[in-house]
Each structure stands twice: as structure tokens, then as C-alpha cells.
């Protein structure tokens, strides 16, 4: 009894009045041994055992089944605890709470689990469960929460419908296949259905809506098909549906018509053919998050009364309707939605002018309108969107000049894409006042003039970035995807996980030299200035850009040698210097040697060295291009002097002839002779230009 008294004094042990140990709470205590060291026979009255983050290894011993009084068993965050779930666990007939999480188990769920008929909570996650769910699980009639993962296979047993008191069914992150059993309709107390990340197929049958308490449906990343059923929200409790990346072909018109409780709905990447306005009532409700990207939504967003059915949804904070076939104009009411933070209408057929508004709600941070048919000048309504971080207007028909106010009015901009429009004029110097900008894409426009040179304020590109803060965050994070040309290939990038820092000014009519200020942007990972009229030399300190992965200076009029600093570009993996007037030896570096495609340097007649032909000799320099021009001019001069002298001499002799017929004949002879001489001189010059001096 003295030992029992001593044990009961421990802060981790609870005893009853008789001195029996009834609770062992060893959470966050360092045991650093095998579980076998615990003598379970010494605790016949134990009702609760908690082992969390103890450094345990070995296996769960079969002797744990002797704790027949156990009501709560929690073993978590012991990743070195391996082996199988012992079959003796079925002896714990009084157990109501069983949680095995974040263990190194490699086990199937034993059939004996069905013996635990007192269970209310069964959670076995991140424990490398394998095999199928045993049908005996249907014997757990009192179960309220079932959470199993993460390598289960097979199908969901129909016996699961016997657990009529179940409130949470969590089978996400497994490899379960087949169809949902119809017996799920018996789960009339179900509140949360979590089946994401499986291989389930077939339709969602209407009986799923039999639960008047159903609030949350997570069925993303499966292969469900058909129409989303009409009765899913008939009881009016549903507030979250995440069904992205499935094969749904439609949404029943009545599915969400009266679902005023709905806050989050996501059907991204399905095959839904519908008019969005027909799927939702005009009642504003509480809808905050609506995502239907990559479907086949058609029609406009207007109601039968000609009003935008989204305009009265004042709670709306996230709207992604990209990659559909919607048409119509940009509604002026978007500027007035007080909670709107994210708006993506890209890759549709929207058209017209983006309307002006004197208001822009200060929460708007992401505005993506790319790949539509919008026209007019740079939207003046953006002038008041002070918190905008991502602006993509690419692939439209915007025209006019880029306004000088853009950097002052949008001081928090991280990403600016205006590519593939018809913007003209110069790049305003004020655009270099952005302090947080990490991506500037003005490619494929009609811009002229020089590239501004003062990059002092471009601090967002002046240092290395490990990742970009382009994640839309609310209760559910959402990665922002942007269409970009990266390493000469069109890609869609998730800006939240890609350290994108770059400038693309290609496909314009920019002139003069590449500004030296660009080489101070040490965080640059890509730089594209191709397809312009740039001249002069490549900046000598370009080797400072040690993070640069992609550089394209092709199709310009750059001359001189490639700077030796190119050898310092340790990260370069994509390079294009073709179609310029570069000359001299190509510099060598460890990373440059991996770029062995000769087309990188093609159409530069003066270049030599790897991967082109070897240079002839470093001791015999090639005649400078300016010297060749001077030689050609001198040759022309001497040829014309000789021709003039010969013509004048014969002309003088002609005056000696008195008779008119002789004089005319002589003049004609002189003209013919001069024509022949001129023709020969031109042929000589042409030959000289092609072959060059010997």
C-alpha cells in the first residue's frame, strides 16, 4: 500500500479513494524506451492511459488487452512505435475513446475492433493503416466519430450504415474505391462527411441529405460523377462543400437554391455544364467562398432583371470563375463588395470596358482578369485599390499608355502582368517606384523608348526570395495560380510555392542600351528582353545576378563581346543570345558548360568557342567591324575618283573633234564605257562585302 501511496503522489497519476491507480497521463514526458517496460498487470483498475510524444519505440504489447477497465486509450506522436495493432485490443470492452495517431504502425485494422461496442470515438490516423475496413466496424453502434487513415484500400463497407449515431465520418487520405454505400443515408445524425483524397466513383445519391444536421462535405479529389443532388441542403444546415477535382457534370437546380446557410462552395476542376445563376438563389445568404474554376459554366452573371446576381452578396470574399465560357461585362458592383478579397475571372469571354468607380473596397488583394476580351485603357478604377498585391490584365485588348500613377496608387503590388495587350508609349519612370514588386511582365505590347534605368526602389527584386506571399488565406488556404512564360515555356504557376522574381519586357519596340541598373536586382531569377531593338553592349557586371535561372536577350542588335561575368551565373539553366551582333570568344563556366545547344548563340557571325566552333587563335585578333566599314568607304572613294578622272579625260578629248556626228558618237562611247566601269565597281564591292578581305 506504501507503494500505491507513493505512486499517487505523482503529478502524472490519479488514484481513487482506495489508492488504486485509475489514470496514467504521461503526455510530453520522456520515457525513451519500449512500451513493454510498463507493467500493465500492476494497474488492474486503470481507466485512462495517455502516451503523447514520449520517444517510445518497439511495439504495442499484447498485454495491453489485460487493462479490461480501460475507458480511454490515447497513444499519439510516437513515430518510432511500430508493428501491428494487437488483436487483444478487442478485450477492452469498456473502451469508449481510442486514439492512435502519428505512430509508425504498419498494420491492418483487426476484426476484433468490432468487439469494442462501447466506443464513442475511434481515431487511427497517420499510423500507416493498410488493408480494408473490416465489416465488423458496423457493430460499433454507439460510435459518434470515426476517423481512419491513411493507406486503407477496398471499399467502404455497407455495414457502416449501422452506426446511426455517427456524427463525423472521416475516411480522407486513403485509397478507398468503389461507390458510396447507400446505407450512408441511414446516418441521420451525420454532421461532417470527409472523404477527400480517395478513388471513389459514381453518383452522390440524394439520400445523403437525409441528415438534418449535415454541415460539412469534403469529397475533393475523387472520381464522383453525375449531377450534385438536389436534396443535399434541404434541411438548411449545410455551410461547406468542397468537391473540387471530380467529374461532376452538373448541379441540380435545387441543390443550393434555398441553402441560405452555405458559406464555402468549391467545385474547381469538374465538368459542370450549367448557368451559375441557375444554381443559386438570388437571396444573398452568407456565401463567402465560391470557386468554380475549370468547368464549362456558360451564360452571363445577370439575372432575368438584368442585375448581376452576385452584387447583393455582401459577404462574398472569394470568387474564382476562371477557365469557363462565361461572357458579358465586368460588373461595376464588384468594386463595391465590402468583403471581396480575391476575384478571378480569367480565361473566359468577358468583354467591354472595365467600368470606373470612385470606390474600391480596401480588402481587394487579388484581381485576375487575364485572357478575356476586355478593351479600353488601363482601368482607372484600380487607382483606389490600395491593398492590391496581384494584378493580372494579360491577354486582353487593353490599349493606351501605362499610367504613371500605378506605382503610387498600388504601393503593395507584388505581381503586375500586362502582357499581350496593345499598350503603347514609353515605360513610365514612375513604374520603378514599386518597393514590393517581385514580378513585372509587360511583354508583347507596343512599348517604345528606353528601359528606365533607376532601379533603386525595386527592393522586392534586390534580394533573394525563398517564397512569395501570394497565398489567399482564410479558414481554408487557396494557392493563387498565374499564367506565366517561364524559361520560354508557357506555364501555370502556383505563386505561393514558387519563388518567382523576374522581369519580362520581351516583344516590344524598346530601344537604346540595356540599363546597368538591372544588374543590381540580385534577387532576379528570370529576365527576358528579347524581341526588341536594344543596342550597345551587354552590361559587364551581369555576373552579379547569381540567382538568375533564365536569361533571354535574343532578337536585338546587341554587339561586342559576351562579358566574362557570364561564367559567374551559377544558376543559369536557360539562355538565349541568338540573333544579335555579338562577337568574340564565348566565356566558359561550370554551369555554362551544361548549356551545349548551339542555337543559344546562333545568328551572331562573330562568336566562337564552345558550343560553337573553336576560335582560330587568340593571338590573331579578328578585324574590327568598324575597320571593315572604313575600308569599304575608302574603296568606294578611290573607285569613284578613278571613274571621274577617266570620264573627264575622255570628255576633254571629245571637244577636239569638230564634226558634230563624231562628237555625238564619242559621247555615246564614253557613256557606255562609264556604265561598264560603274557596273564592275559595284560587282567588286558586292564581292568584298560577302567574302570580306582575304
Tell me about this structure.
- A hairpin with a 2-residue loop joins strand 38 and strand 39.
- Among the domains are: 447-608, Leucine-rich repeat, LRR (right-handed beta-alpha superhelix) (Alpha-Beta Horseshoe); 628-691.
- It has a 23-stranded mixed β-sheet, with helices on one face. A 13-stranded parallel β-sheet has the order 21-23-25-27-29-31-33-35-41-43-45-47-48.
- With 694 residues, the chain is of the alpha/beta class.
- It contains five helices and 48 strands.
- 11% of the residues lie in helices and 26% in strands.
- 36% of the residues are buried.
- CATH 4th-level superfamily of the domain at 447-608: Ribonuclease Inhibitor
CA-based gyration radius: 38 Å
How many helices in DSSP terms? 5
Question: How many β-strand stretches?
Answer: 48
Give the class-level CATH name of the domain at 447-608.
Alpha Beta
**Major sheet:** 23 strands, mixed
The CATH architecture of the domain at 447-608 can be named as Alpha-Beta Horseshoe
Amino acid at each position: 500500500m506504501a507503494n500505491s501511496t507513493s505512486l499517487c503522489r505523482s503529478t502524472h497519476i490519479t488514484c481513487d479513494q482506495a489508492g488504486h491507480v485509475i489514470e496514467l497521463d504521461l503526455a510530453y514526458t520522456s520515457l525513451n524506451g519500449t512500451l513493454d517496460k510498463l507493467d500493465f498487470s500492476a494497474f488492474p483498475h486503470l481507466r485512462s492511459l495517455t502516451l503523447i510524444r514520449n520517444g517510445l519505440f518497439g511495439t504495442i504489447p499484447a498485454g495491453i488487452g489485460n487493462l479490461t477497465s480501460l475507458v480511454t486509450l490515447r497513444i499519439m506522436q510516437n513515430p518510432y512505435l511500430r508493428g501491428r495493432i494487437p488483436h487483444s485490443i478487442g478485450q477492452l470492452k469498456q473502451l469508449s475513446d481510442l486514439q492512435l495517431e502519428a505512430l509508425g504502425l504498419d498494420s491492418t485494422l483487426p476484426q476484433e475492433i468490432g468487439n469494442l461496442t462501447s466506443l464513442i470515438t475511434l481515431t487511427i490516423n497517420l499510423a500507416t493503416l493498410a488493408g480494408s475496413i473490416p465489416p465488423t466496424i458496423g457493430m460499433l453502434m454507439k460510435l459518434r466519430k470515426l476517423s481512419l487513415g491513411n493507406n486503407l484500400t477496398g471499399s467502404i463497407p455497407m455495414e457502416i450504415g449501422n452506426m446511426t449515431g455517427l456524427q463525423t465520418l472521416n475516411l480522407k487520405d486513403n485509397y478507398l474505391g468503389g461507390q458510396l454505400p447507400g446505407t450512408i443515408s441511414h446516418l441521420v445524425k451525420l454532421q461532417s462527411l470527409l472523404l477527400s483524397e480517395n478513388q471513389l466513383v459514381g453518383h452522390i445519391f440524394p439520400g445523403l441529405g437525409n441528415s438534418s444536421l449535415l454541415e460539412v462535405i469534403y469529397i475533393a479529389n475523387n472520381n464522383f460523377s453525375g449531377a450534385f443532388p438536389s436534396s443535399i441542403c434541404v434541411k438548411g444546415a449545410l455551410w461547406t462543400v468542397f468537391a473540387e477535382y471530380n467529374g461532376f457534370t452538373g448541379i441540380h437546380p435545387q441543390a443550393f437554391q434555398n441553402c441560405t446557410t452555405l458559406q464555402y462552395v468549391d467545385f474547381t476542376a469538374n465538368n459542370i455544364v450549367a448557368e451559375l445563376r441557375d444554381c443559386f438563389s438570388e437571396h444573398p445568404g452568407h456565401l463567402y467562398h465560391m470557386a468554380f474554376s475549370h468547368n464549362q459554366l456558360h451564360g452571363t452573371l445577370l439575372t432575368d432583371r438584368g442585375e448581376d446576381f452576385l452584387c447583393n452578396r455582401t459577404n462574398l470574399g472569394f470568387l474564382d470563375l476562371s477557365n469557363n465560357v462565361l461572357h458579358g461585362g465586368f460588373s461595376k458592383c464588384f468594386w463595391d463588395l465590402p468583403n471581396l478579397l480575391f476575384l478571378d475571372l480569367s480565361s473566359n469571354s468577358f468583354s467591354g470596358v472595365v467600368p470606373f468607380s470612385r470606390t474600391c473596397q480596401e480588402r481587394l488583394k487579388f484581381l485576375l482578369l487575364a485572357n478575356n476580351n476586355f478593351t479600353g485603357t488601363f482601368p482607372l478604377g484600380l487607382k483606389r485599390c490600395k491593398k492590391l498585391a496581384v494584378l493580372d490584365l494579360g491577354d486582353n485588348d487593353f490599349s493606351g499608355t501605362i499610367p504613371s500613377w500605378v506605382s503610387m496608387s498600388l504601393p503593395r503590388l507584388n505581381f503586375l502582368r500586362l502582357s499581350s495587350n496593345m499598350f503603347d508609349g514609353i515605360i513610365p519612370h514612375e513604374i520603378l517606384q514599386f518597393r514590393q514588386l517581385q514580378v513585372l511582365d509587360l511583354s508583347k505590347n507596343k512599348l517604345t523608348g528606353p528601359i528606365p534605368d533607376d532601379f533603386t526602389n525595386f527592393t522586392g527584386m534586390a534580394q533573394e526570395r525563398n517564397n512569395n506571399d501570394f497565398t489567399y488565406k482564410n479558414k481554408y488556404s487557396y494557392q493563387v495560380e498565374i499564367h506565366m512564360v517561364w524559361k520560354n515555356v508557357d506555364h501555370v504557376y502556383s505563386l505561393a510555392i514558387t519563388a518567382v522574381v523576374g522581369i519580362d519586357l520581351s516583344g516590344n519596340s524598346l530601344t537604346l542600351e540595356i540599363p546597368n541598373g538591372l544588374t543590381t536586382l540580385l534577387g532576379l531569377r528570370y529576365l527576358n528582353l528579347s524581341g526588341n531593338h536594344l543596342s550597345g553592349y551587354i552590361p559587364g557586371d551581369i555576373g552579379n545576378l547569381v540567382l538568375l535561372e533564365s536569361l533571354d536577350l535574343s532578337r536585338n542588335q546587341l554587339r561586342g563581346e559576351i562579358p566574362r561575368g557570364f561564367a559567374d551565373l551559377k544558376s543559369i539553366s536557360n539562355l538565349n543570345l541568338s540573333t544579335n551582333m555579338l562577337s568574340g570568344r564565348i566565356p566558359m563556366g561550370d554551369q555554362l558548360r551544361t548549356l551545349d545547344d548551339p542555337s543559344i548563340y546562333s545568328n551572331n557571325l562573330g562568336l566562337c568557342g564552345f558550343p560553337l566552333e573553336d576560335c582560330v587563335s587568340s593571338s590573331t585578333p579578328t578585324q574590327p567591324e568598324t575597320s571593315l566599314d572604313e575600308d569599304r568607304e575608302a574603296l568606294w572613294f578611290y573607285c569613284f575618283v578613278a571613274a571621274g578622272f577617266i570620264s573627264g579625260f575622255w570628255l576633254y578629248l571629245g571637244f577636239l573633234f569638230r564634226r558634230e556626228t563624231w562628237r555625238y558618237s564619242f559621247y555615246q562611247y564614253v557613256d557606255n564605257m562609264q556604265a561598264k566601269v560603274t557596273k564592275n565597281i559595284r560587282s567588286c564591292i558586292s564581292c568584298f562585302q560577302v567574302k570580306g578581305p582575304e
